[in-house]
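Thread: phosphoenolpyruvate complex, take 2
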Amino acid sequence: MARKPIIAGNWKLNKTIKEALELVGGIKEKVADVKDVDIVVGPVFTALSEVGKLTSGSNIGLSAQNLYWEEAGAFTGEVSATLLKDAGCQYVIIGHSERRQYFNETNETVNKKIKAALAQGLTPIVCVGENLEEREGEKTFDVVRDHVTNSLKGFSADEMKKMVIAYEPVWAIGTGKTATPDQAQEVHAFIRKLLNEMHDESVAESIRLQYGGSVKPDNIKDLISQKDIDGALVGGAGLKVDSFVGIIQGCLS
Ligand code: PEP
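Output below.
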């Protein structure tokens, strides 16, 4: 099955509103003709609405980096799926390793957040992946199995097909160490096999799997040419127009 590549920039805790608008304005100009790659940017909460005005009606989608599962109420400091929709989002990154590491995100909270996102028609970009100790301890497949099966527990086949999964080996995030295309492909194929076991082939074959971890214009081609890699979740290289656009162009055949 041909899956459309999806390149998403996770801007993390970076960029004022002005800087965010400059970045997305530059990207927008350079990718205006791109039809064969889904392009997504993920600014901080405070810039979402302004960036959303600029991306509205364009070929660039808007993503938040997190959400809370409750709709409204006494949850100081939190932002719900409805409010993300209101700000113009179509996507939301859920379960990023930095949230698992610093903010106590667990498979259970990831699961609740995915449910809340889907209920509002947001596309969840669900992050999974092992850290260095787990990789060196040969636990990669156990950790990825745990993240995939427990974070994605209880969803129907139709709901599954609305998600994107990002495999991000934590040891490759922001370190300049990319997993080799073979290492990444091996885990992507494993995730697709798990999805087949959890559901069926139509789910496994239709879900797009992104790779994340030091993706740059000069390594994207080798990654995207792998059978089970359908795009990238990009951190550092997503903060500059030329490197982000270079990654998108690297996905065009
Ligand atoms: C990320 O934070 O999701 C990421 C992949 O970061 P980087 O591209 O900088 O490694």
